[in-house]
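Researcher: I'd like a candidate sequence for this fold, 704 residues long. If you have to choose between options at a position, lean toward the conservative one.
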């Protein structure tokens, strides 16, 4: 499960989900802080300002004119927006994005040094340096024009019949072009020791199905903007404006049919709805006339005897619609998907048009991020562990890992204590819950074994080719795992990532080095602040193992109901309370938070805060901390809660908030902070809040 939002903007920033989403219920991103800016000499390959980390306890964001018992978020973060105006190249600002900018700056320094060359470069440094150098060479990209993708465009145009589609689709998917559907590797949800193939719905150009189906004026406008954008991309690639418009309209009709056959983002959260292990013959019977073996060969998958058909209703509808759609429309659809997937390594006219829709119109972001930012993070996506190895050596302090492990163990002990004291759970289920808890693996900082990129060829003068080969390398690496033993040492995020996640099939929590910095972990701050910040993140990820999705997996990572019927009934009653609480919040205009979509993250926010506070009080007792003593004007419990709330300080554009509410399993940050705080038994005492105040509700929603 993700702790926050993905930070990449535009389709070029979204690497294909080669490990099918139903398998990795991963973690997200958090960001904040005062990014102080110092102007320096302009160089397109380097920052034009210096990003400085935000302290763990951000006094500049606190608005002391607000009563913390009325609106704690406004108290802890009330001055954040004024101090953090949204830069033109961002859709919003929060704790995660502030640290993301600091980290990107650090990566850029590593990459500029590696790109300068020299005999002393290691093979990994050669690859990351040459990848970055090529990505930054916009003059070369303009000079090459469409030439790098012309062979692929010609291959699409040369299709004579639909029988030839599977091989071309496989070739495109291998290089990260997600046409028609998704295919990848996952652990078998009911036998986590097995790695299997999986297929699921996909092929949409808009974020998810309901963007095609909602009837509001904003949705109608956005769909027309999407059609216009598709037509522009096709025109830039050589179609006449008349033909491009015709193709874009036909594409929209095609994708709308696929959307109608797709599951909702809320339904996709339920592993029981997305697990349908089938013999390959059973799956192929649902796609008559399709040579699925040709697709597997082209995508470089082993021929499989079984797979997980995550969305079984989708594939018959897909085949029916492909058969009903003329071949020229399908060609135009594949051309567009290819162009938008490669836009970041194509001439400026393609890159800018791609950003105009996916960044400016969809997210409300006025300007595209500087090239150095996008290329630095592209290297992190393509060669993350090669770059991460250098990053860890320079920026990850060894004592951070030791302190993190201490906090993790404290919070695990707090969860065991919380399970023991639970009044609604039976003794039988408590035993199994603790068994699962004791089996959770903790991954801190970086992997024990670094990934080998020897077979990945990177050339300093081949920007698009490098991207394609990197996507093919990762695709092949993932699919080669099918049928092989699970590597429990593998990470799903790169070391510089500002994020964390829990993986139910692995039953592990993962904290990359990138997030173990201020403001989330600040070695200059006291335990109260750090337990409120990163401690709550640890508790958040641990709670994901016991939220409405995680509870369905046992300690070995198998989809297995280990709860008694009465305990499940009690659990649902408590989570329904959270669904109703968050579902009552209006996020933007008339759009409310989706309480069911955000249930897992809301449960994790609430549970994570409870566990972190229990752990902090135990740690403070061991250390002999005087909880009533004040620092910066606040007691330790107050500093703990302020630290937690400041995880969520944000300043976001309305378009980003709207898009988040419609697609993201995380609630907007304001509601995440207050929604969790109001359910905490220790908060009212810490701030002296009286019964009846807004932050002390009559009914408290408490799961863990």
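Model: Candidate sequence:
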């Amino acid at each position: 499960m993700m702790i926050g939002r993905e930070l990449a903007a535009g389709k070029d920033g979204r690497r294909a989900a080669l490990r099918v989403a139903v398998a990795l219920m991963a973690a997200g991103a958090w960001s904040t802080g005062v990014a102080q800016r110092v102007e320096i000499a302009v160089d397109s390959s380097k920052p034009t300002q210096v990003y400085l980390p935000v302290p763990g306890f951000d006094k500049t964001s606190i608005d002391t004119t607000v009563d913390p018992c009325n609106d704690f978020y406004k108290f802890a973060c009330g001055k954040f927006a004024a101090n953090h105006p949204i830069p033109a190249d961002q859709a919003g600002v929060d704790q995660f994005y502030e640290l993301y900018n600091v980290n990107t700056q650090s990566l850029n320094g590593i990459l500029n040094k590696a790109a300068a060359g020299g005999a002393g470069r290691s093979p990994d440094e050669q690859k990351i340096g040459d990848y970055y150098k090529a990505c930054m060479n916009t003059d070369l990209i303009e000079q090459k024009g469409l030439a790098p993708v012309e062979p692929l465009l010609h291959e699409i145009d040369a299709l004579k019949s639909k029988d030839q589609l599977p091989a071309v689709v496989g070739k495109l998917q291998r290089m990260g072009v997600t046409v028609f559907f998704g295919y990848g590797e996952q652990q078998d949800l009911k036998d986590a020791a097995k790695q299997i193939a999986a297929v699921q719905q996909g092929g949409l150009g808009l974020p998810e199905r309901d963007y095609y189906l909602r009837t509001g004026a904003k949705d109608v406008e956005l769909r027309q903007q999407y059609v216009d954008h598709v037509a522009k991309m096709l025109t830039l690639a050589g179609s006449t404006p008349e033909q491009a418009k015709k193709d874009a309209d036909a594409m929209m009709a095609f994708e709308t049919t696929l959307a109608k056959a797709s599951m909702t983002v809320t339904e996709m959260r339920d592993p029981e709805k997305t697990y349908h292990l089938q013999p390959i013959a059973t799956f192929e019977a649902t796609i008559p006339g399709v040579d699925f073996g040709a697709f597997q060969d082209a995508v470089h998958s082993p021929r499989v005897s079984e797979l997980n058909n995550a969305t079984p209703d989708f594939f018959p509808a897909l085949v029916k619609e492909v058969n009903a759609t003329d071949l020229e429309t399908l060609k135009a659809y594949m051309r567009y998907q290819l162009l938008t997937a490669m836009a970041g390594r194509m001439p400026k006219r393609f890159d800018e048009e791609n950003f105009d829709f996916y960044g400016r119109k969809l997210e409300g972001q006025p300007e595209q991020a500087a090239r150095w930012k996008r290329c630095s993070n592209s290297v992190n996506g393509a060669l993350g562990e090669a770059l991460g190895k250098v990053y860890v050596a320079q920026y990850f302090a060894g004592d951070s890992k030791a302190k993190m492990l201490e906090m993790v163990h404290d919070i695990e002990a707090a969860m065991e204590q919380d399970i023991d004291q639970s009044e609604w759970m039976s003794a039988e289920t408590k035993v199994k819950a603790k068994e699962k808890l004791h089996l959770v693996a903790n991954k801190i900082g970086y992997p024990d074994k670094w990934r080998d990129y020897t077979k990945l060829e990177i050339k300093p003068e081949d920007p698009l080719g490098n991207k394609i080969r990197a996507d093919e390398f990762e695709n092949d690496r993932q699919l080669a795992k099918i049928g092989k033993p699970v590597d429990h040492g593998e990470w799903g995020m790169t070391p510089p990532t500002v994020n964390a996640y829990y993986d139910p099939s692995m039953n592990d929590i993962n904290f990359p080095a990138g997030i173990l910095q201020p403001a989330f972990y600040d070695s200059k701050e006291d335990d109260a602040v750090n337990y409120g910040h990163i401690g709550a993140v640890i508790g958040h990820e641990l709670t994901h193992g016991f939220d409405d999705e995680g509870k369905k997996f046992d300690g070995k990572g198998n989809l297995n109901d280990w709860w008694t019927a009465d305990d499940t009934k009690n659990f649902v009653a408590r989570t329904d309370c959270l669904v109703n609480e968050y579902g009552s919040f209006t996020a933007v205009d008339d759009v409310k938070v989706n309480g069911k979509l955000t249930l897992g993250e809301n449960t994790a926010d609430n549970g994570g805060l409870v566990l972190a506070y229990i752990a902090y009080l135990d740690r403070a007792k061991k250390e002999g901390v005087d909880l009533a003593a004040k620092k910066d004007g606040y007691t330790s419990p107050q500093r703990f809660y302020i630290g937690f709330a400041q995880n969520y300080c944000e300043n976001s554009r309305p378009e980003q908030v709207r898009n988040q509410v419609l697609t993201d399993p995380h609630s907007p940050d304001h509601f995440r902070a207050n929604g969790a705080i109001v359910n905490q038994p220790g908060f009212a005492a810490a701030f002296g809040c009286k019964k009846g105040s807004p932050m002390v509700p009559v009914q408290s929603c408490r799961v863990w």
